[in-house]
Amino acid sequence: MKIIDLSVTISEEIKEPLPTTIIYEDHKEGAKKMGGKLFEGLTDVFIEDNGPAGELLTVTSHCGTHVDAPYHYFPTCEGKPSRTIDQMPLDWFFHDGVVLDFTDKPDGYMFEPEDLIEKLAAINYTLKPFDIVLIRCDADKRIHNDDFVRIHVGASAKATHWLIDQGIKVMGTDGWGWDIPLHIQAEDYRNNPRQGIIWQAHYVGIEKEYCQIEKLANLEALPPFGFKVACFPAKIKGASAGWTRAVAIIE
Q1: Which residue from 127, 138, 128 is spatially nearest to 101, judged by alpha carbons?
Q2: 229, 95 contact by CB (below 8 A)
Q3: SS3 label, residue 44
Q4: Helix, strand counts (H, E) of the chain
Q5: Measured distance between the N- and C-terminal CA atoms of the chain, rounded to whole angstroms
Q6: Is this prediction's pTM over 0.90?
């Protein structure tokens, strides 16, 4: 069995609008601070003054590789309260994976159902319910660049509907987001203000329940199909998303 890491490293170096901060506490500091809290004020009892190391993170639930829950998209889904990440069925997150290669498309390209059909035909694969569909554009290779949020391909509302209609419950991308880049959405709206421009793929979640994985990595290391994806989200109470250590498993 071969396991391939599909996750980015949570770090302060990722260039995104809501950055992460990490305060590192080494073993010497841990002896004085964390050690004192854990051991009733005892700070001089550790071997060579090396206590427990630790880190304090300030993060959003959407930092790093993460799974968006239906609650992220809208308060309701299919006419009912949207489910949060801790309410999602675990069996959604361990299924056969499929990689669709969009590295031939320019930064910011919005793919439609016709693109998905073409890509599936190119690898001679027919989707089945619960497949986990992964969109590759290699944006993860530029995750520390200032233009990271501007370079990924994104799904249209119609493409997202189409995937769900094939029985897909979980879909993902190695880009910053599932929709096209934010600046393109904003420009389109300014040029022609109307509903359906901003966050169009996400808002599919109003009508149909699904989850999406954002900021995947290393999709180039995978075959088009013939592997399992495990992407169980962290169980955060009432949350709109949960971090995942997504991996591919090849027997």
Answers
A1: 138
A2: yes
A3: coil
A4: 6, 15
A5: 4
A6: yes
Question: Which tokens sit at 86?
Answer: 């801790």
Report the 10 Å Cβ neighbour count for 85.
Answer: 26
d(CA 157, CA 172): 15
User: With contact defined as beta carbons under 8 Å apart, do 214 and 172 qualify?
Assistant: yes
Residues 6 or more apart whose CB falls under 8 angstroms from that of 41 comprise: none
- Are 98 and 131 spatial neighbours (Cβ–Cβ below 8 Å)? yes
User: What domains are defined for the chain?
Assistant: 5-9+61-250 (3.50.30.50), 21-58 (no CATH)
Instruction: Name the DSSP letter for residue 219.
Output: G
Closest by CA to 134, choosing from 232, 218, 16, is 218
The residue written with tokens 């290699």 in the block is 138
User: Residue 233, CB half-sphere, CA atoms under 13 Å: how many?
Assistant: 32
Residue-wise pLDDT for 56-106, tens only, equals 999 999 999 999 999 999 999 999 999 999 999 999 999 999 999 999 999
Residue 85 tokens read as 């990440």
Cβ atoms of residues 119 and 99 within 8 Å: no
Among 56, 66, 25, 99, which residue's Cα sits nearest to residue 245? Answer: 66
Over residues 7-55, the pLDDT tens digits come to 999 999 999 899 999 999 999 999 999 888 899 888 899 999 999 999 9
pLDDT tens-digit profile of 104-118? 999 999 999 999 999
